[in-house]
Design a protein that fits this description.
This protein is mostly helical and 372 residues long. The protein folds into three domains: 65 residues, Endolytic murein transglycosylase (Dna Ligase, domain 1, 2-Layer Sandwich); 82 residues, no CATH class; 132 residues, no CATH class. Helices cover 52% and strands 8% of the residues. The strands form three sheets. It has a two-stranded antiparallel ribbon with strand order 1-2. A two-stranded antiparallel sheet has the order 3-4. Strands 5-6 form a two-stranded antiparallel sheet. β5 and β6 form a beta hairpin. The N and C termini lie far apart (127 Å).
Length: 372
Amino acid sequence: MVGLPYVWGYMYSLRKPSCIKKMAKSKGGVVKKIIFLLIVCIVVFGGYWTYENVFKSNVHLDGKKFTYIYIKTNATFDDVLDELYSENIIDDHASFEWMAKEMNLPEHINPGKYRIDASMSNRSIVKMLINAKQEKVKLYFNSQIRNKEQFIAYVSDKLEINDSELEEFCNNETILQERFGLNTDNMMCLIIPETYEVNWNTHIDDLFALLQKSYKSVWTKERLAKAKTIGYTPSQVSTIASITQSESNIKTEQQKIAGVYINRLKQDMKLQADPTIVFANQNFDAQRVLSSDKDIDSPYNTYMYKGLPPGPICLVNPSTIDAVLNYTKSNYTYFCAKPDFSGYSSFTNDYSIHQKNAKAYQDALNKKGIKR
């Protein structure tokens, strides 16, 4: 049994300042450890939450590396969400919407075509949309686009521009004349074959300003002077060049062919150019023109009507424009493709010789089984 004096002595010792300090110090160390552990947990949890909601990929593309979304002009935040959600691009909708609102995306909707990569996070997607980091659209204009209708269909398919809006613009005589010096028949002269990079939401005026810039870069002072020297306007030169280009891609041949057509124009002869018949019939896959094709009543039927057709029959390369401006001067009024299909032609000013050349070529077509 512990004696009373001992107990009182022990209790008295606990009341000494040194003992109290030791206990307080021990208790404070525990509190510090707890606070430290709480901070570590908060940091770890916060880091994990931030990674999951801000930096981790939140894109689902079913194995694809990327896809595109299209934000229309005057689109709302809900429209953006619909574009993303309707294609099941975003995995976690809640985290994306939180990030979008945190970065104030609803107040900064920019229309355009955007590329979504499989590795993109909420933050990277929102940042891209806010900063309008659009994916450029490439417009490939080449000689395969032959008429206004094909041009309208191609552009309206590639860009936000509505086909009816573009059709109205291309058929507006006042705009075409005042801005470009062209009309509804020859407005295709404006389009120089090359690759144009534009934003998906490019306005129709900006698109045509770009086309006009390219057109002016081709029609330099030197080319304009040459056109005037040979007696034709730029649009007439382009029309002759379109027929010439449809006949051959060989530059030396183009110069000779252009010379034949210019001789015919000067002598008030019909051009009788087969490519214009193909254009008039809109049968662009035809490899052979039949006699029945020439019966079509069209201003592009140069077997029926004298002079140049109303406009070009395809988009014209600058090199072909040069071939016309520097056409070969001769007395030839006839030419026909050679039966060896080399791309070269036989030229003459004797109709009887031309008939023999034409028969040889037709026989070659028959031998190859080319009926159309």
